[in-house]
Amino acid sequence: MSISVNSNKIFTKLATSLELLIRTALFVGLPVLMCLVLVHDFEKEAIDAAKNNRCSEMRAVLNRIAIMGNPEKHFAERMERLTSNPIPPRVLAVRAARIARSENGAMDLFVFDASGSIIPLPGFPMPPKAASQAFLKGLLKLTPHPNANLIAAFAGNKNAVNLLAPSPGIFINLQNGFNRSFCGWWPVNGRNGTPIAWVVAFLHKGKIEQDSLVDRAVLTARRLVGTMYYLGWRHPAASETIRPPLPDTPHGLLEVLCTTSAGIETCSFRDRELVTQCSAQGELLFCLSRNLPFHETFYSNFRILIIFIGITAAVTMFIYAGGIFPPFLGFRGKLVLLLLASGVIILGGLLGSIFADRNNRERELVRQFETDHVNLLEKLDRASASENYRFFRTYDEFTRKTMGQSLSELRRQIPALSSFVKLNSSAFISIILVDLNQNIIYESNPGAAGNSQSKLAFQMLRYFQHQQEGVRGESQGDSSMITDVLVVNLYWAYRSLGSFFRQKFLGQDVFFVVQPINGPDGKPHALLLGLQDALVLEMQALARIRRNMNAVAANGLHWAALPVSPDTRWQTFPRSNTGRNPVLKQVRDQVLATQLPAHTVGFIHNCEYLVTALRGHVLDGYVLILARPFSIIRDMTLRLNLQAAGLSASILILGLAGAFLASSMLLAPLHDLTRNLTALTERHFNERVPPCAVVELSRVGERFNSIMENLYDLKIARTVQENLWPGKKLSGPGWSVEGRCCTAAGLGGDHHEWFTLPDGRIVIAIGDVAGHGVPAALVAAAAKVELALNAERSQSPGAILCGMNSGLLEQAGRSRPMTFWLGIFDPGTRQVRFADAGHLFGIVLPVKGGVEHAGAAGYPLGSRKIPAYQDDVIDLASGGRLVLYSDGFIEAVNAAQEQFGFDRFLETILPLRSAPTDMLINDVFTRIANWSQHDFPDDDQTLVVLTVAPVETSI
Length: 955
Prior knowledge:
This protein is of the alpha+beta class. Helix 20 packs across helix 21 (797-812).
């Protein structure tokens, strides 16, 4: 039989443990697992973002090396730095000499002051003064027809002035072989914007060591970022080495570089990021990260925290199942802990999912804005064509009106065309209308371009006529081969692109208008050839976009346009200093390198922006840029998060409301029980718990009501007991007696008394019965009766105590002994005769100072059949105070279970030696209550104070 019982117990324990494990897995394990998965996803995203940021930095480093390794860009950048500040010409010459020496003869520099006079460079021979100054005057167009021989002697090309004058700030190829093959000129502006000096630079292609230039660029970058990255390059014709040599080249890197395609920008080498880039000269640049891959992130702390919370929740559930909650936690506290154990992690998972969704929403918003940016830039680019369409429609209208007319009728339409050209003269290079007889019907800018454009127009008209007749075009006798080539190219451009198209013409971007006009016979008898400056048209379109974008900029969206060409004639929009921002320059270079839209996030003027760049199609000379403050995206994400959080909170509130309604049947009776327990602690024993639908709780309520009825009876008994105590203080000339009692339970075991004997003396007593409740209260009531009977029979306090001892032994036996202090005060002599039956000594506080103790060793009443009590006398003729008290004050404990003690009690009453009696009593009870932090004491507390004034005074 015992074996069966033990088996059942084991089976029950196993079933309980299995149920607890299942609950823990559902309420703790599953939420913890979900949170760990979310943290893993966040960590992976953070690692990927860090890798992308690192790769972006590496690409930026390679872009910088590519620029510094390109001769034209390298030297142009050095010149920009030299001429960007308003430096006096003499100081400028010193710095120019230093740059020329550092380039080892690959660069010749010439510095001129504001008047055009040459300034010699320290350490360099004086250049030919006449040739150099004639060259500068030709650039500045101070001389209408500069001496071609002087120009050729100085620049190596007699046409150098015409090539360089339109394009200050860039290097132009003079096609001089390897000596002074490139030339550029830069103004140095003063603070008022006027030039204070000029710098002319020549590059000697034969002296530029391309390999050394790339080596220098890599070594310069290594000094800056060499602690983070391996940098180098591989020669396209000598791929067996890495240049410049790396002191700690990783083994196997060269093999990876040899097998890496030039089109693959990012790959890995031993789990490290490897970024490559092919330069304009064919070098394969590479940047390899020195750091190990990203593995540790701050999300590791989140993982540890989630595991800790999960373990804590599991332990809490085991504690709840084992019923070992702290005793001060009631049902509500246990319920709260259980909800914390099961619900906090679920709520954390919910918030984590909202956070994860926040990241997704932010990424979606970024992608959406990137798409919107590209669409808006494309619209702006297409809309800029309206500037061109305005001209095209005018030409088309002119051709439509003149088509099929004779030449005389054609000439009558010239004033309208001339008026239109004058209104838009800044956009025109020239417009020529010619006929088959080589007559110029109209020319917008006579003599500006010589006869070259008129000859081109004549040849094109002949070519159109011959093509229409099906005859191969023939050259005129005075035409050149170049003119023939241009005619053919323009004709086929007209056939494929229409009458309005863009092409390079003599190194300049030009919009061509080619409009053949048929005569009455249906054959071309006139041709309109127009050349319009693409730069002017694009800048006019961009100026209009700038005006229109001002309203959009008020909403936080900013627009910019950076020129593709370094030619200073191509302006930067919306302001000239816009192109200096490194973020905008970086995104422009990325667009030019990939020919695709580029997006980045960077700081512009200390604000974070989402930046999108696009190469213009109509605005082919510019990269168009839009920048939107990233704070707008975060604000929108925050609003979406708040909406999601509000929805989650609503769902949570609905769940809590449902739980509240479902648990009302259980919690309402508990609330009533709690309310009545509060009434019990406040000693309102007439409250009752109403019946409820839950049978078990209803039975608890019935038992509680039974207890309350009993306590109500005790309350009545307490009222009776309080009536046995003195109702008010007793006083006379120069003396008073006052006291208070606070019981620990409904009925207490402390007793105090004072009354007047027939001879005028005052009996003062205080006692303490062992225990509390009804038995102690009955013994205290019996002691009151015995005191009254024996005080009439005996004059001595000791004798009175002996009589009370006999009476209490007869009534209660030795089960409830009672300590007792009895004194008889004589108002005439101001003396107190007293005897002590084991009670705490009284404290005497004379008026003149000091402390005395009034008491003697003795046995409590009811503890011995034949006790002996001795009388003693306290003399208060000089005035003073007698304080009697029970042990409830001394044994009161605080939260740390530390007793109040006699010393603290004495420290409490000493400062109140001369205070009014009621103040002394109130302060003592208040300090004890503050010490114990209980509404009612753990033991009965009684205090009796006799105050006596000196004989010559009165109270």
